[in-house]
Amino acid sequence: MAEKSFNAFEMAQAQFDQIADLLDLENGTRKFLRTPMREFSFTIPVHMDNGEVEVFQGFRIQHNDSRGPSKGGIRFHPQETIDTVRALSMWMSWKCAVVEIPLGGSKGGVICDPHNLSAREQEQICRGWVRAMVRNVGPAADVPAPDVMTNAQHMLWMLDEYESIQGSKNPGFITGKPVGMGGSLGRTEATGYGVIFTLREALKELGLRPDNTLASVQGFGNVAIYAIQLYTQMGGKVICVSCWDQKEQVSYAYRKADGIDLDELKGITDRFGGIDKTKAASLGYDVLPGDEWIEQDVDVLIPAALENQVNGETIKKASNRVKIIAEGANGPTTPEADEIIKDRGIFVIPDFLANAGGVTCSYFEQVQSNMNYFWEKDEVLGKLDIKMTAAFQAVLEMSKKKKLYMRDAAYVIAINRVAQASKDRGWV
Length: 428
Ligand code: GLU
Prior knowledge:
Blueprint: H1 8-23, H2 27-33, E1 38-47, E2 53-64, E3 70-77, H3 82-98, E4 104-111, H4 119-133, E5 142-146, H5 152-166, H6 187-205, E6 214-218, H7 222-233, E7 237-245, E8 250-255, H8 262-266, H9 277-282, E9 286-289, E10 300-303, E11 324-326, H10 335-344, E12 347-349, H11 351-354, H12 357-371, H13 377-401, H14 406-424
Parallel strand pairs: 3-4, 3-5, 6-7, 6-10, 10-11, 11-12
Antiparallel strand pairs: 1-2, 2-4, 7-8, 8-9
Helix pairs in contact: 1-3, 1-14, 3-14, 4-5, 6-7, 6-12, 6-13, 12-13, 13-14
The structure holds glutamic acid.
């Protein structure tokens, strides 16, 4: 589905340049912010179950830490590239700034496909990643978290390796830990719920009631699942969800006109969360190949998979009914698609605002870890709602005041904050 020439870092820099022009940023600040501060690329040798040694490529990119320790997840993906990680690290700086949490931006990755790795092999990759990075990460420097195809178990292996090397307990090293092992209640739900907190505000702004709206979701991972759960609880109806088919290496959309049943679909997934096509068809779902999720006659589109999914080609297939795009994924929409979205007057909740719930809850997790006192789930989610709603309203206000597209308004706020912190420190 991805266009061959797509480069996420070029896209992140193009988005940045456009706002730097708008803000008339000084040349030095502009040069400093459009490039990550530190980059690490390293090998991770692993003794595989078959006795052979496999060498994996790992990355950590720290884009900016002027506002606090850098923060960002680690992705496991067979098509990972250093440029994708660079882009994602930059987006993390803007994300932490737009929700006003005292953290910078970073991202990590390993080129690997967990589908083809045993638990032991994945554990070795996690431990190897930490050994390679141990001198350059830490609670006061750079704090990893889960992302695409990594979860609480991976975080715990990484924490254990870090603590073994340091010789002390250090739960602030990483977030997204299992609950009971330093993790926060609500962290698993946080990103998907955060998307829906901002969607709720956008619906209010457009004078729409959630129970009068239909949505189509791309993805069936952690973000998508909790977004669907909360949106459905609010009375919205998801009529289509797409999911990657590991065997065929393509996506399929699963559509039910009277609304998908989240628990039913979760009940027919494999151990990696992939939906079983045959079982879905027997439960009455239309199983449709390719980009069908974006073609549905719905009010809300929620891309919650990977980057470059709403692009110049796919957006043309979107129905005229679409009023809101709530970006659960990082970088799902290309600048080319943005132009078409603007022309059509679709309201966008940009990725680094919409999906900031994950890192916001990670911040709460660190706070709780530091106090060694853990809040109830309602308290966590209540604080998350307050943060997400305030950030959304600030971006909306900026967009109205300066007559800016929502993505540009979010960028103006975020870039200004990071530029100011870098200036105040005397860096630029
Ligand atoms: N990986 C998530 C993101 O892209 C969360 C990052 C974090 O919690 O540090 O926002």
